[in-house]
Amino acid sequence: MRRTVAEHQAAVAGLLRWSSGYDGGAPEVLPLARALGRVLAADVLAPVSLPPFDNSQMDGYAVHADDLAGSMALSVAEAIPAGSVPADLRPGTAAPIMTGAMIPAGAVAVVPIERADPAQFYSVAALADLGGTATVTLPGGIDAGLFVRRAGSDIAEGEVALTAGTLLGPAQLGLLAACGAGEVPVRPRFHVLLLSTGDEVAEPGSPLAPGTIYDANTTLLEAALVEAGTEVTRHRLVGDDPAVLRDVFAAITAGSTHLVLSTGGISQGAYEVVKQALSDSGVEFSSVAMQPGGPQAHGTISGIPFLGFPGNPVSAIVSFEMFLRPALHQLTGAPAPRPGLEAVLVDGLESPGAKHQVRRGLYRGGKVALVGGPDSHLLHALAASNCLVHVPEGVTALQAGARVEVTLIGPVPSDPFAVEDVLVLDEAGTD
Ligand SMILES: Nc1nc2c(c(=O)[nH]1)N[C@H]1C(S)=C(S)[C@@H](COP(=O)(O)OP(=O)(O)OC[C@H]3O[C@@H](n4cnc5c(N)ncnc54)[C@H](O)[C@@H]3O)O[C@H]1N2
Ligand code: MOO
């Protein structure tokens, strides 16, 4: 069956939503320190206001409401360090107050020490020498509220601090800590069973026999899945014997696995192990109008969602980025969607008009240089790229200077754009 990219995206998202059983999983309650990258399972209301009390934004003098006119000597009252509960401030006095310290009753403003005369706090010894007669003169026309951080000005007690589905990054965890939360309820991790197929693939670290290659896909996809917030069980490599793979699939039982993901063995060859093992299973083998990543399989095994990605490593990771990653975001809230940008092509390209072509590129400063050719074995080029470059269906060629959509998949260099460093790879990688 032939389908568009959008149709297959919808099919994968629907498969995970309706068959993975993920939504029924009970939330986990984790200490904040272990919740980075997880997704909040329930709304969290602020149990306290932030700030919890009016406090000073500056080291300076707390000024009484009656003394805002300034320009006169005020008696220096007892100093207010952060963490203390101050005595009420009397008119005609100003209290040295430190950043974060509670504003005393009666005070309505803080004048920074730099604007006071003298512009330094009295030392304890100096105060003792003056025997309680120390004074300070503040500038005229002080506005009420100057450098006062109002209780609840960040968030009021009882307001929604974070909503269910929020991806917990440093800022969100910092907010929860500031609210006094020790633990947080998070959605369970999405669990993937990952297996790569093919008689020709060998475990990295083992000797390489003639005609064989090292397994790149398991590591590539495991890393991508872990980065996307899932938990991965890595299956041992499975060869090209359909009977063996059928046994592997038969041993998979519903439980904690939300998705079985394989690579290889799904196209038109004589030894397509995944296709043969699942020939009577109802799993659909389709041709998606995308390059790379055309051959795709999807369905269920023992009721568990199954996706078969093509064996070429770049096809596999493009399939992940285009189909699985967005579906995971829709279902679990993690990972965050990839940023999409418009960029100016540094070089021209050709594309099969009947397919959505996904090229690899290096984006910086609003421009994108292609890295490597369109072929799906070019892992070295992939490793030097930071984005996917989209050439929509119907487009057969683009000139340098054309505007294209790119999806960022890696960090953007901050130095000015220079194409020289990618040209070498571009030439070497195009075949
Ligand atoms: N006659 C046709 N041949 C092919 C077609 C087609 O439409 N008609 N499609 C091509 C496309 S496009 C792709 S993509 C591949 C997909 O093939 P499979 O999914 O069946 O994958 P394999 O044949 O098993 O492997 C393809 C390629 O990838 C290498 N490979 C496989 N597994 C790994 C791994 N774990 N790590 C690294 N590399 C791996 C494998 O050695 C092959 O070179 O089919 C085309 N053929
Ligand atoms: O569509 Mo294949 O996935 O190019 O190599």
Structural overview:
It catalyses: adenylyl-molybdopterin + molybdate = Mo-molybdopterin + AMP + H(+). Catalyzes the insertion of molybdate into adenylated molybdopterin with the concomitant release of AMP. Its cofactor is Mg(2+). This is Molybdopterin molybdenumtransferase. Belongs to the MoeA family. The chain is α/β, with parallel strands linked by helices and 431 residues long. It folds into 4 domains: 2-25 and 191-332, Molybdenum Cofactor Biosythetic Enzyme, Chain A (3-Layer(aba) Sandwich), CATH 3.40.980.10; 28-50 and 153-186, Molybdopterin biosynthesis moea protein, domain 2 (Alpha-Beta Complex); 55-149, Molybdopterin biosynthesis moea protein, domain 3 (Molybdopterin biosynthesis moeA protein, domain 3, Beta Complex), CATH 2.170.190; 340-429, Beta-clip (Beta Barrel), CATH 2.40.340.10. It contains 9 helices and 28 strands. It has helices spanning 5-19, 124-130, 170-178, 217-227, 242-250, 273-277, 313-332, 379-383, 420-429, and strands spanning 2-3, 28-31, 44-45, 55-56, 60-64, 73-76, 93-97, 107-112, 135-137, 148-149, 160-162, 183-186, 191-196, 201-202, 213-214, 231-234, 259-263, 284-288, 290-291, 295-301, 304-309, 340-345, 349-350, 356-364, 367-370, 387-391, 397-398, 403-408. The strands form 8 sheets. It has a 7-stranded mixed β-sheet. A hairpin with a 2-residue loop joins β20 and β21. α4 packs parallel to α7. The longest helix has 20 residues, at 313-332. The protein starts with a strand and ends with a helix. The model is unreliable at 427-431 (pLDDT under 50).
